[in-house]
Amino acid sequence: MSNTFYTEETIEHFRHPHNFGEIKSPDGYGEAGNIICGDIMSLYLKIRESKNKEIISDVKFRTYGCAAAIATSSVVTDLVKGKTIEEALKISKNNIVKTLKGLPPIKIHCSILAIDALSEALFQYLKKHKRKIPPELKKKHEHVEKEKKSIDERYRHWQLRK
């Protein structure tokens, strides 16, 4: 694969994204954005109890972004559906890139954005249920909040220029 082109897997997920849409009254909702590229991902989770474990029973996404952003959003939903919260927390950008059989280096940030949206949805779920939040998840949440603040500030600046 050339480092400048998308794989067939990426193109397929872009053209036919899995789990696209919203979940009304989600158990967990996460949104992440990137100030540089302008991509924004929203991830919705439904979580149910099964044999004393919390399982992600449904997941949907909405993404405003490029082909890689949409493809990575689609892949992360496939990777987490049916997983426990603990298993979902272990999913990384590398899992997404491997599933897509690679991404151009300039598009790797899209896989990070997908993980940020997932992390934020899991953070919000745990927070809502007054559960212990792992330190690594807190750190990711702080990063996502910082990015959101940057995007909001940039947007306000652009609005003032009109």
TrEMBL record:
Q: InterPro entries from the xrefs? A: NIF_FeS_clus_asmbl_NifU_N
Q: Tell me the SUPFAM superfamilies matching this sequence.
A: SufE/NifU
Residue ranges of domain NIF system FeS cluster assembly NifU N-terminal in the record: 6-131
Q: Which residues form a coiled coil?
A: none
Biological process, per Gene Ontology: iron-sulfur cluster assembly
For this UniProt entry, the molecular function terms from Gene Ontology, in alphabetical order, are: iron ion binding; iron-sulfur cluster binding
The record's section on Pfam families has: NifU_N
Record-given protein name: Iron-sulfur cluster assembly scaffold protein
Q: Which organism is it from?
A: Candidatus Roizmanbacteria bacterium CG23_combo_of_CG06-09_8_20_14_all_35_49
